[in-house]
From TrEMBL:
Keywords (A to Z) from UniProt: DNA-binding
Protein species of origin: Fusobacterium pseudoperiodonticum
Domain (HTH cro/C1-type) ranges: 7-61
PANTHER family, alphabetized: HTH-TYPE TRANSCRIPTIONAL REGULATOR, TRANSCRIPTIONAL REGULATOR
PROSITE patterns: HTH_CROC1
Protein name per Swiss-Prot or TrEMBL: MerR family transcriptional regulator
GO MF: DNA binding; DNA-binding transcription factor activity
SUPFAM superfamilies cross-referenced by the UniProt entry: lambda repressor-like DNA-binding domains (SSF47413), RmlC-like cupins (SSF51182)
Length: 184
């Protein structure tokens, strides 16, 4: 199933109309319809809003198949699933299959020049987040404080705190981002 098909299935499973979902995620019903039909792609920020409202993980919406519960998962670099937000200049590599039994969610963020999570702060759930910078420099704002992270630096914070990030450097940033428990 495509992202749009899974979105429509999840929305219908909740008994929610396009207009209801549109109101809750602050998007137009016509845009959501275009996503469901595969004619438009949501930004990462909007994908998160939609998934949260439908009570599903973003990873569920983007995965090709539902995986069985496993205690071991080996993913070759060539098999990492990427989603891209052109508007935000961000690529996200989902390193594990979505699974309700997993207690963490590792993601590789590739953040282009001027790439950002969005202009607005956001918070979500009672998860914990950990960021480790592999390449480049990233500004992360948590609870109105700015942290400038460079290669080898890390940052931990609670997801319930308002946060956002932006690449203000002149080269791409690569970061390992781990969320526990998963929210994506």
């Amino acid at each position: 199933m495509t992202i749009g098909e899974k979105l429509k299935k999840s929305r219908n499973d909740k008994g929610m109309s396009l207009r209801e979902l549109a109101t809750k995620v602050e998007l137009s019903a016509s845009f959501l319809s275009q996503i469901e039909q595969g004619k438009a792609s949501p930004s990462i920020e909007n994908l998160k809003k939609i998934a949260h409202t439908l009570d599903v993980r973003v990873a569920y919406l983007i995965e090709d198949e539902e995986d069985d519960i496993r205690n071991i998962e080996y993913v070759k670099a060539a098999n990492v699933r990427y989603i891209e937000s052109i508007d935000s200049n961000i690529k996200m590599g989902i390193l594990l299959a979505s699974n309700k039994e997993k207690n963490m969610e590792p993601i590789i963020y590739e953040i282009g020049i001027d790439g950002e999570s969005g202009r607005d702060y956001y918070s979500h759930g009672n998860s914990e987040e950990f960021i480790y910078i592999l390449e480049g420099e990233l500004e992360v704002y948590v609870a109105n404080k700015k942290y400038k992270l460079a290669k080898g630096d890390s940052l931990y914070f609670k997801s319930s705190l308002n946060h956002r990030f932006k690449n203000t450097s002149k080269k791409e940033v690569k970061a390992l981002w781990v969320v526990s428990p998963p929210t994506f």
